[in-house]
Amino acid sequence: MVNTSRRVLLASLTAIAMTLASHPSVAQQVVKIGVSAPLTGVGAANGKDIENGVRLAIEEANAQHIKLGGQDVRFEMASVDDQGDPRVGVQVAQKLVDDGVVAVVGYYNSGVALPASPIFAKAGIPLIDPAATNPAITRQGLKNVFRIIATDAQNSGNAGKYAVTVTKAQRIAVMDDRTAFGQGAADEFKKAVAAAGGQIVASEYTQEKAVEFNAQLTSIKAANADLLYFAGLDNQAALLTKRMRQLGMRAQFVGSGGIADSIFISVAGSAAEGAMAWEYGRPVESLPQGKAFAEKFKKRFGADTLTYAPFAYDCAWVAINAMKQANSAKPEVFMPTLRTTQYEGITGKIEFDAYGDLKHPTSTLYQVKNGKWVPVTTISAE
Fold first, then answer.
1. Any idea where the Leucine-binding protein domain is (predicted)?
2. Are strands 252-255 and 276-280 parallel, antiparallel or unpaired?
3. Residue 91: what are its φ and ψ, rounded to 5°?
4. DSSP 28-62
5. Among 134, 207, 307, 314, which residue's Cβ finds the most Cβ atoms within 10 Å?
6. Sheet of 71-81, strands arranged across
7. Distance of CA 58 to the CA centre of its chain
8. Domains, in order of start, for the chain
9. What distance in Å separates the CA atoms of residue 76 and residue 55, rounded to the nearest whole number?
């Protein structure tokens, strides 16, 4: 009798197992989305901003109980610290490939994006860029790279033209941090100034980790510059602005992208007042979903966004949306859908051109007034 009961139980368990196996929708598919950003070092705060933008998108997607190919899907974030270092970036890019990610959101640093992106191209994995802006990133002949933010040619190009035609600067100085981002942005600014008939009276550079700028600023002051355009990042830009004021320089400070954030104001202190910076896209709070996004981000993470969290959030959702439309998490299946994306994101309408760049990019000029960054004007790229 006992043996008979055991046989019945075994038969029942076998039947249940076969039923589950014949219904793949019962199984849960894990879909990994990679993130590469600097989580340590100088760029860590912005890297965390990017990571949290993706994390928020993934949490919301999982709350929707999405199915792909009839299977329940659980999205997971696979995050790596590229340290803002090209060598490390290449190593951790391969790690993401080995970990089985189906899409990657990255990068913060153009100097990391350039050597790392071919690794994802070789693996057939889409890379969606929320922050790295050197134009060359999407000009490498890679079909897997997409960018949802204006390039340096567009952002710094707007800055150069505006400096000459609107600000009416007569004697313009330029300084960069010698990174792929900084040098590229400075070059685009210079080209735009020249095209608008402006005059560059001084061109200097520093290193991305430098904290002392006396030699460069002394040269710029001697050239009697009335505007200094700095192509670099927030913390260093703030230190540079402080030193300008300490030296009694009256030149208008204008920064490239990645500067108009709370880090700049905190580090620069009172010297921040009046500083200007060009950032990518429209002010998030002016967009239909912007205010709600800022509120839920702060509620979830206990901090305001810096610059790139909304772009990273949109990157993740663009990838997830492409998977939903293609009904598959296989990159070779959803990548064609990604190329034809028409998505209304937090940062605005997202569509890609033949290179994978944003079709209708914009830039916004901000100025510090009473200790806060205030939008001055928004310009569409020509």
1. 31-371
2. parallel
3. -65, -45
4. EEEEEEEEEE--SSTTHHHHHHHHHHHHHHHHHHH
5. 314
6. 67-68, 71-81, 28-37, 103-105, 127-129, 145-147
7. 17
8. 25-150+285-351 (3.40.50.2300), 153-280+364-380 (3.40.50.2300)
9. 9
Cis bond upstream, residue 355 (ω within 30): no
- pLDDT tens digits along 202-235: 999 999 999 999 999 999 999 999 999 999 999 9
3-state secondary structure of 101: coil
Q: How far apart are CA 205 and CA 221, in angstroms?
A: 15
Per-residue CA distances from 279 to 7, 97, 107, 154 (Å): 71, 31, 16, 11
Q: Per the structure block, which two tokens stand in for 122?
A: 């070789």
Q: Which amino acid is at 14?
A: T
Amino acid residing at 115: P
Query: b/e string for 357-370 if b means 16 or more Cβ within 10 A?
Result: bbeebbbbbbbbee
8 CB burial (10 A radius; 0-12, 13-18, 19+): exposed
Closest CA to 140 of 129, 155, 130: 129
Task: Look up the pTM and report it.
Answer: 0.87
Q: Is residue 54 a contact partner of residue 77, using CB atoms and an 8 Å limit?
A: yes
Q: What span, in angstroms and rounded, lies between the C-alpha atoms of 206 and 219? A: 13
What are 49-85's pLDDT values in tens digits? 999 999 999 999 999 999 999 999 999 999 999 999 9
Residue 381 tokens, joined: 């790229």
Considering only CA atoms, which of 356, 339, 352, 346 is closest in space to residue 56?
Answer: 346
Residue range 310-325: mean pLDDT, rounded: 98
Residue listed under structure tokens 């693996």? 123
Other Cβ atoms less than 10 A from the Cβ of 300: the count is 13
